[in-house]
Amino acid sequence: MDIPVVPCHHCGEPVGDAARRVDAGGRAFCCEGCAAAAAWIEDADLGSYYRLRSASANRVQADRLDLASWDRAELQDEHSRAIDGGREIVLLTDGMRCAACAWLIDRALAREAGVLDTTANAVTGRIRIAWDPARTQLSALLHRLAMLGYRPYLATGDAREQARMSERRRWLLRLGVAGLGSLQAMMLAEALYLDVNATMPPPTRDLFRWLTFLVSTPVVFYSGWPFLAGMARELRARHVGMDTLIASSTLLAYFASLVETIRGGTHVWYDAAVMFVFLLLAARMLEQRARNVATAQVDALARAQPVFAIRERDDGTRESVPPSALRVADVVCVPAGEGVPADGVLLDAAADFEEALLTGESRPVRRHAGETVYAGTTCRERPARLRVTATGTATRLSQLAELVDRAQGHRPPLAQLADRVGRHFVVSLLVLAVCVYIGWRMYQPERAFEVTLALLVISCPCALSLSVPAVLAAAHGALARCGVLATRPEALDTLARATDVVFDKTGTLSDGRPARVAVEVFDGLDADAATRIVAALEKDSGHPIATAFADVDARAWAQAVVARPGQGVEGDVDGRHWRFGRADWAAHRADDGGLWLGDGTHGVARFTLNERPREDAAIAIRALRAQGLDIHLASGDSEGAVQRLAHVLDIASTLARQSPEDKLARVRQLQSEGRIVAMVGDGLNDAPVLAGADVSIAMGEGAPLAQRAADLVATGPSLLRIADAVRVARLSRRLVKQNLAWSAGYNLLAVPLATAGLVTPWIAALGMAVSSLVVTLNALRLARTSTEMAA
Amino acid sequence: MNILLMLLPISLVLLGLAIAAFAWAVRKGQFDDLDTPALDILDDAPPKPRQDARMREGDDGA
After folding, report:
1. Do B35 and A98 lie within an 8 Å CB cutoff?
2. Cα(A119)–Cα(A762) distance, rounded to whole angstroms?
3. Is A504 a catalytic residue?
4. Other Cβ atoms within 10 Å of B21 Cβ, number
5. Are A362 and A543 in contact (CB under 8 A)?
6. ipTM of the predicted assembly exceeds 0.85
7. pLDDT by residue (tens digit) across A190-207?
8. Which alpha helices (DSSP H) does A303-447 contain, by range?
9. Beta bridge partners of A87
C-alpha cells in the first residue's frame, strides 16, 4: 500500500497522511468539518452516537452555508405551518444513513433553545422541526444540522408532504387489513378443508362460507383496490399487464365463490383470493419502499438551496419574490455572489458571471450590457440588474436538464422489454385458461371451473413477480449500507454486466486541488520571484488553479487583472504586464500542456501543475481490476497531466483534451465493440456522457444535474464504494437468476399438473405461497452477505 | 357444535378490534419510523440541564 490509510473517525472516508488531523484522543479525521462535528458531539455528551450507528456519517463540509434565506417570510409561508406556540416545517436532508443519525438529530436539536419538538425519520430522510420563532431563528437550527453533516433541503411543500404521508399510511393500512383479513379467512377456510368426508351439516358449512365471504370482502375490495384500479387503467389503455391478471384471478375466485355459496355448491375459493391479494400487496410494498428510500435521498441532493429573486418595481423600490413569480420583462437585481434566477439581458455596467453550472468552466466570464446572462450562473463581485427574457422551463438551464432527460430516453429500455414479455405471458395464459375450461367442460363439466381457477392461481407469476422486487429491495438496502443509491431499477442489472469503467479525471480520481510539481525558469528570473508574480495574479481569480498558489505570500498586488476564459489570466504586477496561462497565449509558443508566465511574446517561467490522485484511488482501481473490469480515463485536461495521473494509478487506456462530445463518442465506440460501459463522473459537463453510458455513477460531491443524470449516486467521495457496488450488483444478479429459474421451473411443473386437474385451488394457493417464500428467503441472503462484506 | 355460535362472533369481534387498533396505530404514526425509537431506550442517561430552560425560569421570575 502506498499511503497508510485509516478511516476518518466521523465519516469513515479513508484518510491519508496529507490531510490527517488527529485529536487528543488519538482519533484521525479527514477534514476540519468532521473533527468539529465529532468534538461537538462529544461535548454535548452524545458520544453514544458512534456506538449506536450502523453506517458511517456523511463527510462534513467545513464551509459555512448561507442559510439566511430559510428565515424569509415567503419561504416559511409556503413550506411551514403555524402550530401552537410556533411554526412547524418538514425538510429533507441527504446525510441520514441509519437510525442513529435520526437519534443524533433529535438529541442535538433538543439542546437548542426555542425548539418545541423534532422528529427525524431515517427511512424517508425527512426532519420535522417545530420551533418558536420568537426565541430562535430557523437558520440557527439548520446551521447546527449542517455542522453535523446534515445539509437541509426544501421538501416539496407542506401540502404535498401531508399527501405523501397519508398515501404511505393508506398503503400500510391496506396491507394490515389484508394480513388480518386473510388470516381469519384462512382459519375459516381450513375448517371447511378439514371436512374431507363432507360430514359437516350444510347449515354449518354455509355459515362458515358466509363468514369467510364477510372477512374476505374488505380484503378483495379495500386492500386489493390498487390492483383493481390498475386493471381499469390497463384496460382503458388497451395494454394488458400484470394488474389485469392479478385482479381478474382475484375477482374470478371471489365471485365464483359467492355464486357457489348462494347455490350451496361443492367448493369455495375465498382463501385463494385473499392470500393472493395479501402476498402481492406485500411484494409491491417491499419494492416501492426500497426505491422510495433511494429516490427520496437523490431528490434531496438534486434540490438547490432556496433561491429568491429581487424584483424592481416600476417606482424603483425592490421586493423579494420566488423565482416562479417572475415574468418576462421584469427587472431583476442580482446581488454579488448570488445566483441568477432567470435568463435575461444585462442592463447596466459589465459584470462577471460564473457559468460553471452550464459550461463546467469555473472561471468567471465578463458580460457587457446588452448581453444575455443565464439562470443558474452566479454573479461575481459586482451586483447586476437584468431584464428577464425567459423564466422557468424556457431557461437555458431547464433546456439542458431536458437534454439530459432525452438522452436517457434513448437507452435500451430494459424495463419495457420485461413489460412486453409479461404482457405476452398474461395474454397466452388467459387464452390457455379459456382452452382448458372448454376442454374440461366437454370432458368433465362439473370440474371445469375448479381446474381453470387452479390453473390461474398456480400459474399467476406470483413468485416470478416477487423474485425481482425481493432481490432489488435487499440489494438497495445493501447498497445504501455501503453508501451508494440506485435511482433506476435497471441500474443494478447493467452494473453487474459492465465490462469497462470510464473515469472522468477531474474531480473523480483526483482531489480537485492542483499542486505545483515543478517550476522551470528562463531569462534569469528566479523561481521564487516567478511564483510570487503568479500568486499575485491568481490571488482573486477564484479559479481552482489559484489554490496551488494559495500558500505563497505574494508581497505584491496585481492591478487590472483580467481573466481570459480558456487562456489564462493577465494583469500588472510591480509595473510590469504579465500573462499567465496556456503557452500559445502567454509565451507565444506551441501549447505543451504546461502553464507559462510571460508577457505574450516570450515566456520566463514554466509551471507544471498536477492534481493529486485521491488517497483511495489506487486501491479502488486495483479492486475494480480484480473484478475483471477494464479501466479507461477520458479527461478534458492536457496530455501531460493525464499521463502523469495515469502513470501513478497504472491506467493504460487514456484520452486527453476530451470535450463532452469526445467522451460520449468514446463511450459509443466502446459500446459498438460490444462492451458495456460504466461511466464515473461528477461534473455537469459530464451529464450527457453519464446519460449516454450503459450505466453511470455520479460521485456525491458533484453537480446536482450530473446526479440527476446518473443511475447510481455515491453518497461520499470514496471511490471504494464503486467496487462495493459492483460486487453487490453481481451478487444480486446471480440471486435474480436463481429466483427466476426457481419460479419458472415451478410454473413449468405446476401448469401441466393444474391443466391435468391434479391440483385443487387451495393446493395451488399453498404452492404459490411456498414458492414466494422461497424466493424471498433467497433474496434475503443478500443482506447477510453484505454485512459479512462490510465486517 | 353450539360453542361455534359463541366462538365465531368472538373471533369476528377480535378481528374488528385488531383492525381498529392497527388503523389507530397507523394514523398515529407508530409505523413511520421503526428503527429510531429502538435506539432511544438504549441511551437514557439524564439529559444535561438545559441552559435555555434555566434562562427562561429567570425571565419568568423577573
Report:
1. yes
2. 45
3. yes
4. 12
5. yes
6. no
7. 888 777 677 788 888 888
8. 356-359, 396-409, 414-443
9. A82, A131
